[in-house]
Amino acid sequence: MSDFSTLLFAALKPWRNAKAWHVALSGGLDSTVLLHLLVQLRQTHPLPPITAIHVYHGLQAAADAWPAHCQVLCDGLSVPLQVVRVQVQAGASIERAARDARYQVFVAATGAQEVLLTGQHRDDQAETLLFRLLRGAGVSGLAAMPRQRRLGAGHLCRPLLDVPRTQLETYAREHNLSWIEDPSNTQTDFSRNYLRHEVFPALRRRWPQAAASMARSAAHCAEAQGLLDELAQQDIHAASAADEFVWLGLPSLELAPVAALSPARQRNALRHWLAAFTQLPDTDHWAGWDALRDARDGAQPVWKLAQGELHRAGARIWWLSGDWLYQPTAPVSWVQPDQVLALPGNGRVRFVGDIPDGPLQVSYRQGGEVMALEQRGHRDLKRLLNERGVPLFARGRLPLLYRNEQLLAVANLNGLDSSPCGRWQLQWLPTLSDQGLS
């Protein structure tokens, strides 16, 4: 086995028991060499089944011939090929849109315990580092491309990140491989192409090991980011105690433990926590967090982000998105109260125990509601919600059960959600923050 094959085999060691390996095959040099190497390896080692995926974007006339080229290559290597045609959405960056369309295909094609293998090499890693450095990226961005990460139900792996492009070219010539040269790769109006053709040649003339050094710096940043993630997990854990409104099904943290951290550590913890929910602003645009954190008690501040909002209520911060950002439709007649009632944009309600006499309907707070309580008389609903500390953002979504004009119950609030004799209880299963149902 050659040194090249030995390096690749070692890089793939964690994935040798996968159910399948899928190769992202553009037909270019790197993916062609990767596929050929894998086929050579399976002749001497037991490997998972290998398939190839070619994504046809249709962005240029030359691309029409690429699926056929990939098919000839795969036929010669006895590798099944899947060709997927995609529509690239118009936008500010055609490169980004094409990448997004590509990865949607890869996510769909990669199942549980399966791995997508891509052919990015050391020069690509160096270009990514420099590109992100010029955009002012932080440690996470400067870590460039990870060697492996989750991809849908499976994983993505880049086994050639330590290999320079020159080594791929040498291998391809030695094995008489042919590959596609994308005409768009020479267009220097694309930022990456400008770096590749104009900047890196000058850097290599002065510093021949520039790409290797940059790739090594990316690895150092990846290690540093791993430590920051560990610190963020500790800080989030310290602020993750549940509260009495856990039934809302919303992600939340205690504010005080977060606010007690240094500003940089606050941002690190919040970036880690919010990354699962939304795209985050850059470091210069965190004034919204400062305003939310420092607002006076009872101010109910909101920080609006790309995919939702961060609210402060009840000494906690809460993440809201999807249906939680809109007032639900009301009223809703409950024609069959023996069955669960779906509330448009607001989950569902049901009775536990007996069913009260009708006619019944579910509505939401408008202001001025009054509720009759046993041994307490008629009480203002606003006061009752204040007594229980219900977060302001949830008050307009709490299902209110009416019979004619009489307010019978408020879902999920102890003492307000049942009949005086306890024969029935109104239970609300809210819409989750990801717009699903709990």
Pick out its properties.
elongated; 438 residues; four-stranded antiparallel sheet; alpha+beta; 3 domains; Uridine Diphospho-n-acetylenolpyruvylglucosamine Reductase, domain 3; six-stranded mixed sheet
Describe the structure.
This protein is of the alpha+beta class and 438 residues long. 37% of the residues lie in helices and 19% in strands. The chain contains 14 helices and 19 strands. It has helices at residues 3-11, 29-42, 66-77, 94-109, 122-134, 139-142, 165-174, 191-206, 210-238, 255-259, 263-274, 287-294, 381-388, 392-395; strands spanning 20-24, 50-56, 81-85, 114-117, 148-151, 154-157, 252-254, 302-305, 308-313, 316-320, 332-334, 341-342, 348-353, 360-363, 370-373, 377-380, 400-403, 406-410, 424-429. Strand 17 and strand 18 form a beta hairpin. Helix 5 crosses helix 8. Residues 434-438 have low confidence and may be disordered. Its main location: cytoplasm. This is tRNA(Ile)-lysidine synthase. It is found in: Cytoplasm.
CATH topology of the largest domain: Rossmann fold
Per DSSP E runs of 2 or more residues, the count of β-strands stands at 19
What oligomeric state best describes the polypeptide chains here?
single chain
Would you tell me the structural class of the helices and strands?
alpha+beta
Helix content: 25-40%
Tell me the distance between the termini.
53 Å
Catalytic activity: cytidine(34) in tRNA(Ile2) + L-lysine + ATP = lysidine(34) in tRNA(Ile2) + AMP + diphosphate + H(+)
Domain Lysidine-tRNA(Ile) synthetase C-terminal: 360-428
Binding site for ATP: 26-31
Pfam families: ATP_bind_3, TilS, TilS_C
